[in-house]
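Hello,

Our lab assistant flagged a job as stuck in the queue for most of the afternoon. It eventually completed. Since we weren't sure the result was trustworthy after the delay, we are filing this so someone can double-check. Below is the sequence as submitted and the structure that was eventually returned. Let us know if re-running is recommended.
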Amino acid sequence: MSINSVKEDEEQKDSVKIKVILRLFRYMLHYKKEIIFVLLAMLLSLSISMINPLLMEHAIDVNITEKDWNGLVMVVAALFAASIVFMFTSKFWMKTMARVSNKVLLVVREELYAHIQTLGFDFFDSRPTGKILARVIGDVNALKDVIQSTVTQLIPDFLTVVVVFIIMFIKSPALTFSAVAALPFIIAGMYVAEILAHKKWQIHRKKSSNITAFVHEDFSGIGIVQSFTAEKESQSEFSKIVDEHRISFRNAVLVADSFSPTIEISWGIGTFLLYYIGIQKLGVGTIGVGTFVAFSTYLSMFWGPVRNLASYYNKLVTNISAAERIFDILDTPAEVADREGAAELPKIEGRVRFEEVSFAYPDEPERFVLHNVSFDIQPGETIALVGPTGAGKSTIVNLVSRFYNATKGRVLIDEQDIQNVTIHSLRKQMGVMTQENYLFSGTIKDNIRYGRLNATDDEVIAAAKAVHAHEFIINLEHGYDTEISERGARLSIGQRQLLAFARTMVSDPEILILDEATSSIDTHTEILVQQGIESLLQGRTSFIIAHRLSTIKNADRIFVIDEGGILEQGSHEELMEKKGAYYQLYQAQFKNIA
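-- returned structure --
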């Protein structure tokens, strides 16, 4: 399995930028009504902006020239009223669009989070958690400016440029072409900036992801860092990663900022040519002072939006890499997903059968972990899986739970191929407990109830009593309402494992999987838990993986897993009499204990 480290930049597929942009903007179509109102308000604001210079031209060339003071007052009043309307309409569409952009971000983030939850273990095993967090949080946040500016900046500024150009052209084609003569330089600059800057911002996004991943990993393992007094080494690594992030940002900004002077120079050239041609060649008297003032105003109204459009384009180039990273995850197919037409698995009895099952990880298809494994387990039977580390014990139970799909062969539950039923209907009838006794931040009661969210308080307490967790819980300051962190601070490893046991028990599964479930419990606690396990196993098909062979002597059958298959199977007594692989494992462990 190819694994990406916190210090290594992630691989990212190249994408067609216009497709990424259109796909991003499609999210806005969910809010057509709000956007229509925004566009109407913007058109009204734009109309006012276009009329104002014409009113000024009329005031100068007509009212002032002819000393029509009443007309001048009316024009001033009209300008004032237009300004009031402009102020209110502008506030309306800015607030509305800010609200829409936040909703779009929410939709993107929820869609991304929902999709990530469908991805298999191989996705999470191949990259640091912090890099996944960077996409869900940082990359989604980076899209806000682009989404909001699309309507609040791109559309009005584009319309402004077009309308102003038409008005200027009608008034004076010569002045218009002189004013916009430098526009081709801007277009060329935008093209160059897109080529150079986009790659730089992609690199910067990856470096940002590395920081998040390193901090998450370092703080998650802070106990190890402090135990080995590795704070200085961690600080040194962090400084190195931060410095790479700083350099990547500097390189990206240098390219992006180099485009701004092109706009300012072009604007200056356009203004110079306007006044040079207007005054030196055509003459102010020929055009009229009011017309020339109006034309100067329109020129500012033309180049202002052009500068905004260039700024928007810069934002787009800056943040399109964030959209690419988001869509890269959304386009990652779930290796384990419901087939089209998958049926709901009805309440099961618990018969499990493997038919010539082989398994290899998707990125190592030639390396089989299991080879042609077959067995048939009856409802209510308890099966123990033993063998050396890496033999395939956890792989077998992961195939039963369909955390992976079998590469070859079939896994059947109650005679139904599990690939033909929905994942939800399959897993809700299973209880899985591993040696990784992960707890969520919240109360002890909430953590136990996570096994079945609609469990009553009495059922939660009953599950805790079954695994003998009730005694230590009620001795806590707030009992079942005691708040704990995700790391289970102030709880012993054994106590955390007991809570995980209670969480599994409250789910009341038809098939129970215990993967090294008692590995972190002391001998005294294990005796109590074994009593709870015995009652839980009654009437349920169970798989137990354990390195302590003394804990599985009462299993109906014991499978010795090695070399990708089942070497031996039978009861404890049968395998001990056979004096094969299990006998040797048992004797070796007993000798080590002795």
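-- support follow-up --
The delay was a queue issue, not a problem with the job. The result is valid. The longest helix spans residues 69-118. DSSP finds 22 helices and twelve strands in the chain.
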